[in-house]
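WP5 quarterly update. Target: Phosphotyrosine protein phosphatase I domain-containing protein. Source organism: Deinococcus knuensis. Length: 137 aa.
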Amino acid sequence: MAEALTRAAAAELGVPLDVHSAGTEATRVKADAVTVMAELGLDLSTHHSKTLFDVPDPQNFEYVITVCDSAAEACPVYPGRTRRRHYPFVDPSGGSLERWRAVRDQLSTRMRAFVQALRDGQDAPPSYDHSPAVEVA
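Structure tokens (predicted):
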């Protein structure tokens, strides 16, 4: 979801970004993620889960953003030019569509702020430590 939301924000704000998403292990794109993203007009039906071995030139990213604590802990060390950010979110897996929507909307806000900062020539917003609360079950 973060990849698609970042791409959408970049397109909307006119920021040319090359965005890739990868996890610590390849699993699958969850049906609930496909459903809630389709509500925004973003099609994840052809997306697939990837690891860093599946993305182009993984050692030359400008930014690496982790969205869960386990990914932040497992994230490899990057060369000096790569800046890491940790924006943790509650994993909506196993929750209701309302929980998925809440996390989607939080991700959208955070990724948009990230893209806006880059558009404005600023450094990306800083990392933070705690996942935003998800108010729904």
